[in-house]
Structure formats: structure tokens, C-alpha cells
Design goal:
- With 41 residues, the chain is an alpha+beta fold.
- Strands 1-2 form a two-stranded antiparallel sheet.
- The longest helix has 7 residues.
- It contains one helix and two strands, in the order ββα.
- The chain is elongated.
């Protein structure tokens, strides 16, 4: 499993984060498995 570059078509988890310099702007990060999410966090 390559969690640095999760290329699965299926999204298991989405993490939404806010941009520091633009509080109204959000970025969604998609993870293909709980393992990839765990590695990232």
C-alpha cells in the first residue's frame, strides 16, 4: 500500500481542513483506507 499517493477510485475517508491565511477557504483531503488516514495523521 502506498499511502503517500492514494490512487484508489474509492474514497473511504475525507478530512476537511481550513487554510490558515483564508479562514473561509477549505481543502478536502481524500484517503482510500483507514490505514492511509492513520499514516497521514
Amino acid at each position: 500500500m502506498n499511502c503517500d499517493n492514494c490512487r484508489s477510485e474509492e474514497v473511504a475517508y475525507t478530512l476537511t481542513t481550513h487554510v490558515a491565511d483564508a479562514p473561509d477557504e477549505r481543502v478536502e483531503l481524500h484517503f482510500c483506507s483507514s490505514e492511509c488516514l492513520r499514516v497521514w495523521t
